[in-house]
Every structure is written in structure tokens, then in C-alpha cells.
Amino acid sequence: MLLATLPAHTFAAPTPVERAQIQATRATSSLMLVRGEGFQQAHLQRLEEDLQALGQAMQALVPDETLRRRHQALVDQLRQGVDFGPGEENMPWRYPEALSQALRDFLTGLRAHPDATPAELAAKIEYLSVQYLSRAYFGNFEIAREQPNAYLGQDERTLVPAIDKEVETLAGQNPELGDKLKTRWNYLRNAFMDMNSQSTAMVSLSGRPFAPLAVDRHTRNLSEQWMALE
Hints:
By secondary structure, the chain is mainly alpha-helical. The chain is built from nine helices and no strands. The chain is globular and about 50 Å long.
């Protein structure tokens, strides 16, 4: 089988640790859609499904007590984001900071898991999508600036060029899969590079409106392709 002949660090089915990272960022993105798009039932349902998928991903690991607490803290923050109810005025102004902290703490714990690997391509893209949705709906997403060498401490200025290289490597190893991922990635990279994270003004670099629904859709479809690998 082709997968068995490729270097594990560049092209391999996602590990349980990476799946948990992906599911955590997906659930966070879903909460942002819930609040940003007016508490639509479809987004509320997707958030519930994402939380269930995250719980299943955790069951596939052997988490220690610290990781269990961080997982619960993230789930609690996500549920609080729904409990506030619709309307920007109902959400405490410090809530986005607390949510991003809970996500970063959980992802940091996952990356310290004994079974963690350097294979984090889809997790990096989902993390960029969270940053994008945050700028579209909440404001700047607080990255882990104390971890500048990890994707958790990076924004589009570092992550996009790094992902470009990984996608090109993957395409060279498996052209069929690589071409599918490149099609979606090319759309996403343009959106991410327009995010303008270096500015505190909530406007894109180009001045065009943010497109959170399209970015979310392409991101989720890309990571679905990735997680379908066996």
C-alpha cells in the first residue's frame, strides 16, 4: 500500500492525538459560527456533533488528569458561549480571551502527549481557520506567543509558508491526494494571507469583507479528506 512506503513525518494517516487537535479546533470554530451567524439550529447541531467527536477522540487516547481537566475546561467554555444567548451584548467582553486560552491550553496538553507526532498539517489549517473566524466575528484571536516555534504561537505570516511546503511535499508523494488538497488550500491560503493579523483593526489586508462561512467550509472539507486517510 502506498501509505506504508512514505515517510511517516510527511504523509501518514492522522494519529489519535492529531485527530483530537482537529476536533478541538473544529468545535471552537462551530461555536464562533453559532454566535456569529445568529444561533442557527444547523450550527448549534454541528457544535454538539463536534463536541461528541472530540469526546470520542479523547477516548482513543490515554489522557492524564491534567489533559482531562483541560478538555473539560474547553468544553465548559464552549457551552458557556451558547448559554450567554444571542446578541453581542450578552457575551462578556473577556469571553473570547477565555475561550482562546482554553483552546490553547488543551492543544498544548495534546502536543505534550507521549503519542504526539510532528504530523500536524490539518491541525495547523484548522487553527488558522479559528483565527480567521475569530477576526470575522469576535476580534483578534490570542495565539500562544510564549510558544513561537509551535503552530500555537504562529499566525498566517509563519503558518501559511510552512503549510505551503508541506502541501507541496505531500503532492509530490501522492499526486492524487495532493492535487485535491492543493485545490482547497489555494483558496484558503489567499483568505488567510488577507487576514491582516498584524493589525488591531478588524479589516482584511485587501479591504474586502471577511468570508467566514466559505473559509470554514473549505477548511472542514480539507481536514475531512485528511482524516479519511487510513
